[in-house]
Amino acid sequence: MAAKVRVEVIDEEGMKTSMEREGDSFNESFKPSTIRSIVKFLEEQLPSPSVCDPSDAEREDLTIKERLAYFLRYDKRSPTDWFTSSQVMKIYEEAYGENVSISTLSTYLANMHSKGILMRKGSRAKRHYRLATKVTPSGADATVNAEGMELIECLPLHELLSR
Q1: What is the pTM of this model?
Q2: Structural domain boundaries, residue 36
């Protein structure tokens, strides 16, 4: 059975870069070599969040909203489970040394929820958020980014590349 895999990256200026692989999905070497190719392509095209210093976001003249989105996705200090706006406000203020009002933060969190970046639960008075994840048909967790595209979380890259 023929399989086709296409990965496309669009940068801030709208420039598209893509890679495509076709092959026999029953061929044992197709999957590992395709995964290695995709990983290599993505490593070349995307900055690695683990390499990025979250304080870099501070120096790039980002808005509070952009810095908050970056913080929630990539900063090691951000909550990994359900959080309230008050909880994230305290951590965010410690991380960036900048005060942000609870109403501003709540507005940004609600906006991120409406874009599918965050999930939320609870009443208005007791609202909780967390990064949106969903189960893909393969059973793996996937994070949905701001453009609505699925980012599948899988094994660490070194495990994939060593196969």
Answers
A1: 0.50
A2: 1-46
